[in-house]
Amino acid sequence: MGSSDVYNDLTLYITPEKFYLEPKTGNELLIIDRASEVVSLQIDPAQIPAINSRKDFCGLLGSINLLAGRYLLIATQRDLVGYIGSHAIWKLIKTELIPYSRSLNHLSNERQADNNVYVSMIESVLATPSFYFSYSYDITHSIQRLHDISPDFWQQSFLERGDHRFIWNKFLLEQFSSFKRYALPLMHGFVSINQCLINGNDFKWTLISRRSIYRAGTRWFRRGIDKEGNVANFVETEQIVETREGDKASFVQIRGSIPLFWYQRPDLRYKPSITLDTNVDPQDHQSACLKHVESMSLIYGRQVMVDLVDQVGSEGRLEKAFKDTINRLAHPSAKYEPFDFHAECRKMKWHRLAILIDRVSLDQDEMGYFSILRDGTLMSLQEGVFRTNCIDCLDRTNVVQSMLAHRNLEIVLRKFGILRHEERLEDQRTFETLYKNVWADHADLISTQYSGTGALKTDFTRTGKRTKAGVLQDGINSLMRYYKNNFNDGFRQDSIDLFLGNGKAISPLSPPPGWRYVTFPSVLLIASAMFVASAILPAEYNTECLLYLMFWAGMVAVTAYYIFQYGTEFVDRPKLTFN
Predict the structure, then answer these.
(1) Which pLDDT value is given to residue 388?
(2) 108-135: pLDDT as tens digits
(3) DSSP states of 430-475
(4) CA-to-CA distance for 170 and 172, rounded, in angstroms?
(5) What 3-state class would DSSP assign to 172?
(6) CA distance 117 to 363
(7) Would you give the DSSP letter of residue 183?
(8) For 146, left (φ over 0), alpha (ψ -120 to 50), or beta?
(9) Residue range 319-323: average pLDDT?
(10) Distance between CA atoms of 490 and 221, rounded to whole angstroms?
(11) Pick from 222, 336, 467, 516: CA 20 to 30 A from residue 65's CA?
(12) CB atoms < 10 A from the CB of 129, how many?
């Protein structure tokens, strides 16, 4: 292991008073006092006294304070994804929460119940696919950023030198920030590492997506921007090519919610209204957007903002506000590029996406990509980035990003002599199948992390064409999104906020629901049952039966109307924070 690598195999010894964390490759102990929560390091440790139990584990993920006190989080199972260079990249499979307190007897029954809910929140976040880590490679940085850093950077711990936008357990590791070889940073997103062969040439093709911890959350409870310029569902996606000889290339894209103050509150309607926040001064919209543009400029250089939302209806009003704001800013690094995805590609004319790719091809050539040869010679830098968005920054966004990455990959493979100049990448059928399936898997995973279901339109990503089966699957996913976004996402949002340190454990967790929450669904259930009974039970129908049917049908209609009228009272809303 290098001097700044993180310990990869450890043993946890549990005694009544302390936790002892012993790395299998070192001669030291990390000691945690369970009562005082003081953490210390002991070199050349003596024998550990009075061990209650021991556990082998593969990484320290941090600790968190809940109602019962502090809990230790450890990684207990991992799967190897592959290698970047000579560095192993792992996927987190199983975790465990271990309480510092030896019992819950100090809590009332109500607080014990709430504490169990908070434990389930942390477990649910860690069970969300997928978290990744490496003991020797900083996967929170792109290859270009790792190349640009100073020598002093390499002396810092992974936690110190990582890109804090993408360290999901940064808050959890605060207690262990001084113990650099124990703190294992987690990245949330997607990693696929593939060994490929084209024209007899071996190369490795890797796709990495990194989800930001800032303004993180669920689809309808995290939209738009905050005052610091952070946007919802911000994801950095990097495509890496490594040849067998050691040449490397990298191409980075980003996605993120439209950088204005807007919202789309769930209210039981299939598609809640998209609303630009009128309580925010127009100058505040502009100020926050400017912060976002400038921060992206500092990290990535120039940016081409590819906006895929509809240019009519509520999406159109948001698109116009975005365009007008960018025009007023007139920032030299930002170029606005609208493309009405649904209008251009209606009736399954998805080949028309080539219009967009052709339109931005010159920008892509000018921004370039990062490339370094096996002998360390720097060939090129990426001097700009595509920032792509739709409303969710999921389905339409993923399709366009996969096409931009495909164009870059063809250029890189020709540059490295893997693809001949007269050849097209799409003619390499084995690789093309792999490429499309990886990008479709990527779409499903990023969508699951944000919306709770797999992505839409992945039939096009997988096959290169829109299919009726794909449209049917999109309908199923849309219905699942509707249910989860209305009835599960309050819990999911609270879980993410608790995990990231944006909210803290409180009790009671939530006030009792209002009278409508109980009364209206009960009346609807009874009225529906009586309507069905009135329809199927009578041996013969008469005027009285028809009157009963009409009455209960009316009760069903009226109750359903009022449920949707007060829809916001029936959805699962966050309880720890809300903005």
Answers:
(1) 98
(2) 999 999 999 999 999 999 999 999 999 9
(3) HHHHHHHHHHHHHHHHHHHHHHSSPPSSHHHHHHSS--HHHHHHHH
(4) 5
(5) coil
(6) 49
(7) B
(8) alpha
(9) 97
(10) 8
(11) 222
(12) 13
Rounded to two decimals, the pTM is 0.92
How many Cβ atoms are within 10 Å of 85's Cβ, its own excluded? 12
CA distance 58 to 66: 24
Amino acid residing at 233: N
What's at 219, amino acid-wise?
R
Angle (deg, nearest 10), helices 353-367 and 395-415? 50
Q: Tell me the one-letter amino acid at 320.
A: K
Q: How confident is the model at residue 461 (pLDDT cuts 50, 70, 90)?
A: low
Of 213, 338, 226, the closest CA to residue 287 belongs to 226
Helix (H) or strand (E) holding 262: strand 262-263
Between CA 491 and CA 496, with CA 494 as vertex, the angle to 5 degrees is 110
- State how far Cα 275 lies from the chain centre: 23
The reported pLDDT for the residue numbered 578 is 59
Q: Rounded to an integer, what distance in angstroms lies between the CA atom of residue 189 and that of residue 171?
A: 18
The HSE-up count of residue 50 (CA atoms within 13 Å, CB side) is: 4
pLDDT digits (tens, 9 = 90+) for 138-193: 999 999 999 988 778 878 888 999 999 999 999 999 999 999 899 999 999 999 99
Residue 345's nearest CA partner among 396, 269, 398, 393 is 396
Amino acid at 347: K
